[in-house]
Amino acid sequence: GGKQRPSLPDYFPLRDKLDLAFRTELALQHRPEFRVAPFFEWTDPKKSPEWWVANNQTKHRLDEDTFRLANLFEAVSALGGLYLVLSDRDTRQTHPITTRVFVPVW
Questions:
Q1: How many CA atoms does the CB half-sphere of 81 hold within 13 Å?
Q2: Residue 9 pLDDT > 90, yes or no?
Q3: Distances (CA, A) of 92 to 76, 84, 99
Q4: Helix (H) or strand (E) holding 68
Q5: DSSP code string of 28-66
Q6: pLDDT tens-digit profile of 58-97?
Q7: DSSP 5
Q8: Are 84 and 24 in contact (CB under 8 A)?
Q9: Which of 13, 25, 31, 92 is positioned for an S-S bond with 105, CB 3.0–4.6 A?
């Protein structure tokens, strides 16, 4: 089959439907001054968040240029993105996910 796998922009229509708290900023519990907002600037359905692009570029083509993208901020942003996706509205109400890493800054 010639079916392509979906990419992150394919999921953009679900953004508001699932109420994934994309406007949420996350602070690290032990370093509250270190904050990330993984989806805050994801407003274009044809683009992906910077941390997603950095991850894919370093994963598929590690060289001098992409090596610079592999940094702590992008890694924490990716983990924050995962936390937010696992914390959709229904999950927050029925089975809240606890974390020792992030504190939501609502």
A1: 20
A2: no
A3: 21, 10, 13
A4: none
A5: ETTEEEEEE-TTTT---TT---HHHHHHHHHHH--SHHH
A6: 999 989 988 988 899 999 999 999 988 888 777 777 887 7
A7: P
A8: yes
A9: 25
